[in-house]
Design brief:
213 residues; alpha+beta; 4 helices; 29% strand
Length: 213
C-alpha cells in the first residue's frame, strides 16, 4: 500500500486544463470502416470483433482466437484475462481498445435528435461547453463521451448518463466525473459521419493514433 507521500498524482493534483493521470498506461486502439455488405447489423458485429482483434494485435497479443465474456457481458481475451478491453460498433463501423487499465469506447452515427434528449443527458453547463465546441450534433458527442465511461465502469445504462459530469481539458479531450467514483479522461473526435470516444481511467503517456482498417 502506497503512503500518502509516495502516492501517484491524482486527477485533483493536475493543473487546470491539463490532462490528469495517475500513472502511464499502455493503450492500443483500432477501428474498422464499413464496406458494401448488404446486412448492416451483421456488419456492425463483425467489424466490432475485427477492431477488437486488431487492437489486441497492436497491443502485442498474438493469440486473438478466443474472446470470452465476463459476468457483466464485457469481452476479454481468454489468453490474456489480465488486460482490459472495450468494443463498440455503429453504422458498419467497429471500434475497440485494449489496455492494462480500465478502458471504454463508444461510436455512434450522427443523426437527427430531439433537443429534449440533450437536456436528459447533460446539464445546462455541459450544454454550454458543447456549444462552444461548435459540434454538429451535441447529443451524439455527449452520449458517446458518457457512454464510453459507463462501458469502462462496466455498468452500462445502470447509471444514467445525466449523472456524469464532463468538462473540457483541451480540444478533443474531456474529463468526466462519476458520482462517488474516479475521474475519467476521454478522447472524443468525429470520423466521417460518426462520433467516437475512448475513455481511460489511467492516461497513457501519449495517446496512440487510432489504427484504421
Amino acid at each position: 500500500m502506497q503512503s500518502e507521500a509516495s502516492r501517484s498524482p491524482s486527477a485533483s493534483d493536475a493543473a487546470p486544463g491539463s490532462i490528469p493521470h495517475h500513472r502511464l498506461a499502455r493503450l492500443a486502439v483500432a477501428a474498422v470502416r464499413p464496406d458494401a455488405r448488404p446486412d448492416p447489423h451483421r456488419l456492425d458485429h463483425r467489424n466490432g470483433r475485427l477492431a477488437l482483434r486488431h487492437a489486441y494485435l497492436a497491443y502485442g497479443s498474438r493469440d486473438t482466437s478466443r474472446v470470452g465474456r465476463d459476468q457483466n457481458g464485457r469481452p476479454f481475451l481468454q489468453s490474456r484475462p489480465d488486460l482490459h478491453c472495450s468494443v463498440a460498433h455503429s453504422a458498419g463501423y467497429g471500434l475497440a481498445a485494449v489496455s492494462d487499465t480500465p478502458v471504454g469506447v463508444d461510436i455512434e452515427r450522427i443523426r437527427a435528435h430531439s433537443p429534449r434528449i440533450l437536456s436528459l443527458i447533460a446539464s445546462p453547463a455541459e450544454i454550454q461547453v458543447l456549444r462552444r465546441s461548435e459540434v454538429t450534433d451535441m447529443v451524439t458527442r455527449c452520449w458517446t463521451i458518457k457512454e464510453s465511461v459507463l462501458k469502462g465502469l462496466g455498468v452500462g445504462l445502470a447509471v444514467a448518463p445525466g449523472r456524469l459530469r464532463l468538462r473540457p481539458l483541451r480540444p478533443g479531450w474531456f474529463a468526466v466525473d462519476v458520482p462517488g467514483g474516479p475521474r475519467w479522461t476521454v478522447r472524443s473526435q468525429r470520423v466521417d459521419e460518426c462520433y467516437l470516444a475512448v475513455a481511460v481511467l489511467e492516461v497513457p503517456g501519449e495517446f496512440p493514433a487510432i489504427d484504421w482498417y
